[in-house]
Structures are given as structure tokens and as C-alpha cells.
Amino acid sequence: MVKIRFWPFIPGLKHRGFPGFSSNSDGATSTGxxxxxxxxxxxxxxxxxTTKEPEAMATADEASALKGFGxxxxxxxxxxxxxxxxxxxxxxxxxxxxxxxxxxxxILAVGSEDELLEYTAANTEVVDLNGxxxxxxxxxxxxxxxxTGLFESLxxxxxxxxxxxxxxxxxxxxxxxxxxxWVRASGANMSNLLFQExxxxxxxxxxxPDRPVIVLDDIEAAAxxxxxxxxxxxxxxxxxxxxxxIPRFSELGAxxxxxxxxxxxxxxxxxxxxxFLGDRIDSxxxxxxxxxxxxxxxxxxxxxxxxxxxxxxxxxVLVLDEGxxxxxxxxxxxxxxxxxxLLHHDQTTGSIESGxxxxxxVIDRNLFEPPLxxxxxxxxxxxxxxxxxxxxxxxxx
Length: 397
Description:
- By secondary structure, the protein is α/β, with parallel strands linked by helices.
- Helices cover 25% and strands 16% of the residues.
- The protein has three domains: 57-141 and 345-392, Urease, subunit C, domain 1; 146-225, no CATH class; 234-342, Metal-dependent hydrolases (TIM Barrel, Alpha-Beta Barrel), CATH 3.20.20.140.
- The strands form four sheets. Strands 3-2-7-14-15-16 form a six-stranded mixed β-sheet, with no helix packed on it. The protein has a four-stranded mixed β-sheet with strand order 5-4-1-6. A three-stranded parallel β-sheet has the order 8-9-10.
- Helix 5 crosses helix 6 (200-207).
- The longest helix is centred in the last third of the chain and has 12 residues, at 310-321.
- Mean pLDDT is 78; it is low at 1-74.
């Protein structure tokens, strides 16, 4: 599976948007404070000896210590130790810590500052968090990463029925991309073209004889790339769930993916659609009922159709719940460890535990200190991806 990661907008780096997110998914990111004005999409290469697993990134001694992910002790010294922090781990066995040691992109140990001093070496950098809150990086299981990037670089053709209908559209694309070595387009309905007598490549050669042309069918490409993956079943855009279906999520092991940005629950929006839905408006979004049923629930952004900020969603979920069903611990887990479980990498990301990748963020406030109504204003100070700083904001330690 090709891994896609995005960084805050830094010229010269592969990047996208919101400092604080890091994950691998059908859309996955890095997150921060505002929606980006620019965007770029970069596919990382297939895993290599330096990206495949934490063991492959360490020395032989370190690999032995890290084997199995989650070893309590690691012999190697730390590259960096973050101390004096409010470190929320999303690990039920150790929810909070004061310090975390990182080496070769992996979390070596989590605990108190005194406990982690044994990881200090001559070249170890010790960073004082000054009481700031550290969290595992948020992960987003449903966002339109490729689509948003395609809007920036590709020409879109319409979903037409006949091959010949694409001829003039491809020519128009060529004119739009006059300075490009390749003509790049997307949006073709490949299922409509399977039984055409003329091969699509012949039409492309005729429409643009002097340059190579590529027309993407993203669904087909993704299906081929992930054909052998043991998929977890997930339903997203969960509006108007039949109450009888709510228990079936936990019964079938299906994961419920809700988008709960403020715009999804805005009073004006609800008022607008109420006449169309009648009494069903009361069950427009059954987030709380689904969670109470025992289902695994995750929260996604649906960006760029909606806001990317995880903090706005956290605030919205908790304020509307009024303390009846969910805690802040629950909601944070829905955007970290539970998403990692959905994406089959909860053994390597999603919480701050020894042996996992050091995908971390530092924020400007402790989310567990009221008021809830201000969580949405949270700013990211620092983002680490595999221990490397990829975003630094004002006031970062």
C-alpha cells in the first residue's frame, strides 16, 4: 500500500495543511490551526529499509530491544527527551506522563523526568515543554486528499458514456496544460469504456499526437493497490441511520465513521433541511446512540468539504453531548488510537507508548481544563513525525 503523508505548508517540502495530523489512510494528513491556502499531494515510495518498521530504522542492538513494539526498556540513548509536560498518552495503562524519550523516530520510554534520565547521552537534546500538553498525532480516516490535490493539477473530464465523447475534452485539457510535458486528466468512467471497440489509447494518441496523456481512474487504481489488504469494514457519512441498524455495528464489527464538524449540526442547516425530513430530523446524526451501543466510532473531517480542525470537532461533540454519553478521553481516542485500529497500524501509532512511532503534537492549552467552549480555539505549537519536527508555530518549546 502506498503511504500518503502531508505536512504544513513549508516551501520545498511535501506538505498539506493542518499541523498536528499524521496517518496513513485513504486520506491522511498532518494537522494545525487553519485551513491551507495552497495544497500539494505527494505519494511516498513503497516502504524501504528506512521506512518499513521501527526495527529497520534502528541499530541491531536497538532493533533487538524494540522487537515486538512496546518494549518497556530500550538500550539505546535518546535523540530527544521532552520533559515537564502534560503528556496525554491515550494509553489506558498509563494515561498521563511528564516526559517522553525519542530515538531513531521511535518512542523509547514514557514516564517521569527522573526515570528517563538514563536515556540521556552527550548528544541528547532535552526540551522543556513548560507544562504544555502533548498528544499523539490526530488521524483522519475520511478526507478528500487526492481529490483536493487533483483540483490543483489535473484537468477534469466529464462522466460521459461513449469513448468518442472524450476526444474534444482531452484536446481542451491539452490546451489548458500547454506548458506541461504530460497532459494529465481525471474523471473518466472506466466502467463505461470496458466494452468499447476502439482502445482508449488510440483516441488519446489521436487527440494529442505530440505529448503523452494520462487519464486517471482513482478507484480502480486504489482497488488494485490494496487488493490483498485485510480490510476493516467502515461506514461513513452516517446520516439518518435506521434505529434498528445501530446495534448491528457492534454485532458485525463494523466501524462507524461520523463527520461532526460544527457545520453538520448548525442550527440554520438543521432548520433548512427539517421540512424535507420531517420527524426523522431528530435522528439526523446518531453519534451518541451508536457509541452507547458498543460500536467502535471514529471521527473524520470530510475535508475539503468541511473544516479540517480536530479541535472544532472535539468541542462540538462534547458541547452537544452535555456530558451525557462521552468524555474528552473518548473523543480524543476516536481521533487517534481508534483510527489507527481502523487503518491497521494501532500497534505502531495512535498512542504515546514505547516502541511506537513518535508522531506527536504539542498544543497551547490543556484540553482537560475548562471551558469546553474554547477547545475549538486550540493552536498547535509543534508537530513531530517519526520524531522529526515538521511544524513549529509561535510559542513552541
